[in-house]
Amino acid sequence: GLSATESIVLAGCYLQLGQTGPARGFTKKALESKDANFECLYRGSQIYTQCGLRGDAAQAAKRALEKLPPNAPPHFRKDLALTLIEGGMAAEANAQLNEYLRVQPKDAEAWLAAALAKDALSQVTEAQRAIIQAYQCDANLTMDRIRQNEALQRIAAPLFRRK
Questions:
Q1: 138 by DSSP, 3-state: which?
Q2: How far is CA 119 from CA 5, 72, 156, in A?
Q3: From CA 65, how far away is CA 143, in angstroms rounded?
Q4: DSSP-derived secondary structure letter, 3
Q5: What is the pLDDT of residue 2?
């Protein structure tokens, strides 16, 4: 049998060839393996996302975060949080983004993701505050993202109303 690492490498190869069926199969095999480490789980969540399996991707992301090495670069936490949001795990995503933003407070993209997570949790005021934070970090990027995303438009709309 293949190790989790070997299975995930094969899954990645199949994905690059556009063969999502085998990619999904090898990812499933890798993630079911007892030796699935952080790297396997992280890569598995990415492969599932690319295959359009958002729920499975979020489950893999949640497991990856449980094995996140303490010295891992902060971007891993942000990447996995984005996968959690897409998979409908807003509470988990919110917790991870809060942690990430403590060490990377100038990341406008992360603030926008936090706005979406907070909105999904019905934390309207906090979602609007996150958009304001994003705008203060990078006004152009924030406005571009708001134009592209209906949920962000809805959250931000009250901020642009004249008093």
A1: coil
A2: 36, 28, 11
A3: 30
A4: -
A5: 87
Is 80 within 8 Å of 45 (Cβ atoms)? yes
Report which of 95, 44, 38, 23 is spatially closest to residue 70, judged by C-alpha positions: 38
Closest CA to 90 of 116, 65, 69: 116
Query: Which own/partner contact pairs does 46-49 have at CB distance under 8 Å and 24+ positions apart?
Result: 46/79, 46/83, 47/8, 47/11, 47/12, 47/15, 47/23, 48/24, 49/83, 49/86
Q: How many CB atoms lie within 10 A of CB 124?
A: 12
Strands (E) located in the chain? none
Confidence of residue 152 (pLDDT cuts 50, 70, 90): very high
Summarize the confidence of residues 10-39 as an average pLDDT: 93
The crossing angle, in degrees rounded to 10, of helices 139-148 and 124-137 is 130
CB 112 within 8 A of CB 152: yes
Q: How many C-beta atoms surround the C-beta of residue 122 within 10 A?
A: 9
Tokens at 47, concatenated: 């492969």
Average pLDDT of span 28-47: 94
Q: Which helix (H) or strand (E) holds 68?
A: none
